[in-house]
Specification:
About 25% of the residues lie in helices and about 25% in strands. Bound molecules: flavin-adenine dinucleotide. Flavin-adenine dinucleotide binds next to helix 1, helix 2 and helix 9. GO terms for molecular function: FAD binding; sulfide:quinone oxidoreductase activity.
């Protein structure tokens, strides 16, 4: 639903379209923030504009289950118009530039937009192309190379596991902002292949220097892995994929290691969209440079960011988005409408559920400075069946039935009005 205020047919000049709130990205963060802004009655929907080029919204968390053979890809996608709050404006052309001094946004088709408040929620891009040969092998249906980080490659991983007849399995991880997600597919693959009695040799190559960034969970996962015969190789970064051969680089010494493989899972390097740095909004890594406790941009008081594209120094997860959303909304309303300073409320809460088998999940929950912040400590001293049931059945329900309606408050449960 695109509304042009004015188009001059003579000079081909297109007048800017104004919105009170512009949201770049209609992923988990963009959707959650727009749904809560509308539900809490802060704005009429027509005053909010979302920029999102994709026609389908993806519940990316579900791609782990697709790869693990626990659900079909169709249950992880819905058309954008079915999940967006009613009557918010949608621009389906990618944003290419922001001018934060002039409060303007430019999209790829040359259209200009203006805003009072800007929320950047553009996620991260998955950079398979930065690993030489990776895309060629991922796209080749015959090559035993897949990845849960993209739905088609997640379907391929599921098929690879079903058909695998034994040999050497390699799982590669670049430096990642959420270490729990990659471990899921390692354990799920192990479970399915052991159940079929397939003889396997498992190797995980991580660029990071530990199994998991939080010592408690690193210990639990490390022990489970060694019980299952999974070998970890730390500080190794995948740089090239060939037919049944991979090349890793030691991140410190730069020494190269080669290995053969019969099954390869790749976690892609991830990076923020280039328009963020090009527009002068990025930190040194190109993430939107926001204050870690308020989510407000460090230079522009009417610019905000949350989710994977933000500089918030915590694990990038949907669970973190659920915790960030109400704080961002509260601070946006306080600073803009009430002329009060933002509150430093966000303490970095995030959570990473890790499937350790197809019956149990280890729920890791923590905040800034690696501090534990557990909601169900009794079920979090090890992997647990209760957490498994929550992750497999309740979280997808909460996402599709509550979150998209602005009703999901993450670990605060169902939200009633949470105004300022
Ligand atoms: C395989 C996998 C498993 C995961 N498992 C879990 C889990 O178990 N628990 C958990 O909490 N989290 C999990 N996550 C993480 C979670 O999915 C992300 O943290 C979450 O989706 C981040 O939301 P976001 O809105 O920041 O980014 P996204 O959901 O990626 O949305 C970003 C949106 O911005 C749009 N966009 C990008 N560039 C532009 C542009 N230039 N103009 C306009 N729009 C643009 C994109 O099209 C996209 O729709 C998982 C992720 C993956 C991939």
């Amino acid at each position: 639903m695109r509304k042009l205020n004015y188009v001059s047919l003579y000079g081909f000049t297109v007048r800017a379209i104004h919105s009170q709130v512009a949201i770049i990205g209609g992923g988990t963060a963009g959707l959650n923030v727009s749904a809560q802004l509308v539900r809490d009655g802060h704005f009429i929907p027509q005053q909010i504009r979302i920029f999102e080029p994709y026609k389908m919204h993806a519940y990316q968390t579900g791609w782990t289950m697709v790869g693990g053979g626990m659900c079909k890809v169709e249950s992880t996608m819905k058309p954008m118009e079915k999940v967006l709050p009613k009557n918010v404006c949608l621009s389906d052309c990618p944003v290419v530039r922001i001018d934060p001094e002039q409060n303007t946004i430019r999209t790829m088709d040359g259209q200009k937009y203006t805003y009072d408040q800007l929320i950047v929620a553009s996620g991260v891009q998955r950079d398979y192309a930065s690993i030489k040969g990776a895309l060629q092998q991922l796209e080749n249906p015959e090559a035993p190379v897949g990845s849960i980080y993209y739905y088609r490659y997640a379907q391929k991983i599921n098929k690879m596991i079903k058909e695998f007849e034994g040999g050497k399995l390699i799982f590669s991880e670049p430096p990642t902002k959420c270490e729990g997600i990659p471990s899921n597919i390692v354990f799920l693959t192990h479970e399915r292949l052991s159940n079929r009695g397939v003889k396997c040799d498992y190797h995980v190559y991580k660029a990071n220097d530990c199994v998991f960034g939080i010592p408690k969970y690193a210990e639990i996962l490390g022990e489970l892995a060694s019980e299952k015969g999974i070998h970890w190789h730390l500080k190794k970064r995948l740089i090239e994929v060939q037919d049944h051969k991979v090349i890793f680089e030691d991140v410190e010494t730069k020494q190269l290691y080669t290995s053969d493989y019969d099954f390869l899972h790749i976690v892609p390097p991830q990076k923020p969209a280039s328009f963020i740095a090009d527009s002068g909004l990025g930190d040194s890594d190109g993430y939107v440079n926001v204050h870690p406790n308020t989510l407000q941009h460090v230079r522009y008081a009417n610019v905000w960011a949350l989710g994977d594209c933000s500089s918030l120094p915590t694990s990038k997860t949907a669970a973190a988005v659920m915790a960030q959303t109400p704080i961002l909304i509260k601070n946006l309303i306080r600073t803009w409408k009430l002329k009060q300073p933002p509150l430093s409320e966000y303490q970095g809460y995030t959570s990473c559920p890790v499937y350790t088998s197809n019956k149990k999940v280890l729920l890791a929950e923590f905040k800034y400075n690696k501090e534990l912040d557990e909601t169900f400590p009794v079920f979090q001293s090890s992997d647990s069946k209760v957490m498994y049931l929550m992750k497999k059945h309740f979280f997808p329900f909460a996402y599709w039935q509550l979150m998209v309606r602005g009703l999901w408050g993450g670990r605060d449960g169902i939200r009633l009005f949470k105004g300022v």
